């Protein structure tokens, strides 16, 4: 059996590695501190050392030198994860047996690929397309899931939740699991249970009554309601209703403060730590580096979102960000018009009824400016005359709220491809 020694490392980094490597029939030992590390190294003589550095490589040079001086240990390969350093700083590490240096945060699919090559082992790794992101606002933790369910990311989610709850000192975590992009069926049942079990296992302070799921598919609702182990977890298709149910009794915090710019918006604090929730293999068909995509031609897709509903704006932002697009959000028509000439947009997503300038007013203004950017109307209104008026004023398509993110993204791609083809 192959053996790996993990030295130092955050609990998230260490425990996730242990779980994954043990599942691959690799024995794992861990050591805290340089003195303990050398003792463990010489007593186990592992096949690989994974060294996690919190601050600088220089802090571990004494250990590396003693390892290189020992005839039995000097040839043992080392993978280091640590802060960003220059190539000139990496080069001297080769003499100590360092074969890979990963700057944090680590993309784990590439990390495990390197471990597999060193150990001459073919590790299984779920490559199912999946977007999984975490955001916090006070005691609220938003978990966004899109595309499909990926077991590697779900496993990592448990430890990421642990880290986030501890870092933010959340005493009563309240979870909003956002799954409106997913349409699950019976075949997804095992992975859905796996997801919920990992969330519940992340921290004993996570109570079932404080887990709410935003989903549109019937299977999710049926599985939760028919599963005694998940009694107390609620499923809804209304984000405001879910948030209200969690806010009740939480020191009177107004809903308006919770539905703020922080919700559904990545922050450095939320995404800090040892690892990334995104993998290297996550680049999608509309990723910003995809030069073959006719919609972007190698440039970042720029999207303007004009809607007075902050929740809608944040959901749309998260959807477009998941495919590498950059979004500018405007909570009023006047704000958008004032900034219209400051940037070239590839796409505009526009609501109809807003305070002040309406969507119709904006369409008329854009017509006068000879706008060529494709416009998607995204509104709750279904009246035929409203749709006809919007299209006659230059909108390219009309979508009624709510839509699943994948529907909006697919329609966006169609419009962008059509627009590029007509130029």
Strand order of the largest sheet: 2-1-3-4-5
Q: Tell me the fraction of residues in β-strands, as a range.
A: 15-25%
Percent range of helical residues: 25-40%
Number of strands: 15
Cα separation of the termini = 61 Å
Average of pLDDT: 81
Which quaternary structure do these chains form? single chain
Structural class: alpha/beta
Main pleated-sheet profile = 5 strands, parallel
Number of helices in the DSSP assignment: 16
Radius of gyration: 25 Å
Coarse shape: elongated
The low-confidence parts are 248-271, 283-298
Describe this protein's structure:
Helix content is 38%, strand content 18%. It is built from 16 helices and 15 strands. The strands form three sheets. A five-stranded parallel sheet has the order 2-1-3-4-5, with helices on both faces. Strands 6-7-8-9-10 form a five-stranded mixed sheet, with helices on both faces. The N and C termini lie far apart (61 Å). About 9% of the residues have low confidence.
Features:
423 residues, five-stranded mixed sheet, 18% strand, elongated
Please outline what is shown here:
This protein is an alpha/beta fold. It has helices at residues 11-23, 34-44, 61-69, 87-90, 108-119, 151-167, 189-201, 218-225, 239-247, 255-258, 268-271, 310-321, 333-339, 359-368, 384-392, 405-421; strands spanning 3-7, 27-31, 48-52, 78-82, 98-103, 130-137, 140-147, 174-178, 211-214, 234-236, 302-306, 326-330, 347-350, 375-379, 397-400. The strands form 3 sheets. The protein has a 5-stranded parallel sheet with strand order 2-1-3-4-5, sandwiched between helices.
